[in-house]
Design goal:
InterPro entries: Homeodomain-like_sf, HTH_AraC, Tscrpt_reg_AraC-type_HTH
Radius of gyration: 19 Å
Shape: globular
GO molecular function: DNA-binding transcription factor activity; sequence-specific DNA binding
Helix content: 40-55%
Number of helices: 13
Keywords: DNA-binding, Transcription, Transcription regulation
Number of domains: 2
CATH topology of the largest domain: Jelly Rolls
Protein name: AraC-type DNA-binding protein
Order of helices and strands: EHHEEEEEEEEHHEHHHHHHHHH
Oligomer: single chain
Pfam family, one: HTH_18
């Protein structure tokens, strides 16, 4: 029998994998959050079943080690290592050393969309997830994440300040990350533009043909380019972003399922429900109940 991998929100991640956290931390729904590994993640109960994330997070190990499963590969993170876990990825923590220290940086997808529209940062979506930092960059990042944590704890915090700090982190990681091979630049360019149009149009347009027309290429060529970069066909990308959008709308308990399906331009409520179940393993109603459970 095939095991269903559940999709979890940042709230569920904290609830399930950061034991002993305060109610204030658990209920924190800010789009950017920073926590210390030694105060939270080190107490995680292991092993845990793999899960799919509806948000993004970054693990930065300053000391000790963490073994993290990500998309069918085990990554051993040691001092100065970064692992980027992006929205939609399947992951779980396999091992944490008793002396592990560092940071978990959680950032929701609407934040990353706001700051990656610049051409340089668009490539961030496709860098290798495991980055080994130089000693100088590791010290710089440690100081910046401490500053972000302090800033976010300040009641006077302006989210734009935190977004600027996050942008600085991304630029620095781009400098340290493996570069995309020149041979796939054409495919990457098509995929980046597809992703940009998808962010703009997914609420109204769900056919691959629409995006192929915008890019002035054939559907088959779009499929080839996107799949070579992301490992997914364009239709799957369209479905997943639509369902992730619906998950955000489901958090409003006053909204009924039919109105959400209508707002996202699904052909029917039943079709939306089938697609939602295919992507998340649960119906929209069951997913909402799960989110509301204490």
């Amino acid at each position: 029998m095939k095991t269903t991998i559940k999709t979890i929100s940042s709230y569920e991640y904290k609830k399930d994998f950061l034991p002993g956290i305060s109610g204030q931390v658990l209920q924190n729904n800010e789009n950017i959050q920073v926590y210390e590994i030694e105060n939270f993640l080190r107490e995680t109960v292991i092993p845990a079943s793999p899960y799919r994330v509806s948000f993004n997070f970054l693990l930065f190990v300053r000391k000790g080690s963490i073994v993290q499963f990500l998309e069918n590969e085990e990554h051993v993170l040691t001092s100065g290592s970064i692992l980027l876990v992006k929205q939609g990825c399947v992951t779980t923590t396999l091992k944490i050393s008793a002396d592990a220290t560092g940071y978990i940086l959680i950032y929701e997808n609407d934040v990353i969309q706001r700051i990656t529209l610049q051409q340089r940062l668009l490539t961030f979506s496709f860098v290798h997830p495991h980055i080994r930092l130089s000693s100088a960059t590791g010290k710089w990042l440690s100081q910046l994440l401490y500053l972000m944590k302090t800033e976010l704890a300040d009641s006077r915090n302006d989210i734009n300040t935190s977004i600027s700090l996050l942008k600085a982190v991304l630029y620095k990681l781009l400098q340290e990350a493996e570069q995309v091979p020149a041979a796939i630049n054409r495919n990457l360019d098509i995929t980046l533009r597809f992703n940009e149009y998808l962010q703009e149009d997914h609420q109204l347009y769900k056919s691959v043909s629409h995006y192929a027309r915008r890019l002035n290429i054939s559907e088959s060529y779009l499929n080839k380019c996107v799949k070579s970069i992301t490992g997914k066909p364009p239709k799957q990308c369209i479905n997943e972003i639509s369902i992730q959008h619906s998950i955000l709308l489901l958090q409003d308990q006053t909204r009924d399922i039919a109105s959400i399906a209508f707002e996202l331009n699904f052909q029917s409520t039943s079709y939306f429900t089938r697609l939602f179940r295919k992507v998340t393993g649960l119906s929209p109603t069951d997913y909402r109940k799960k989110m509301a459970a204490p």
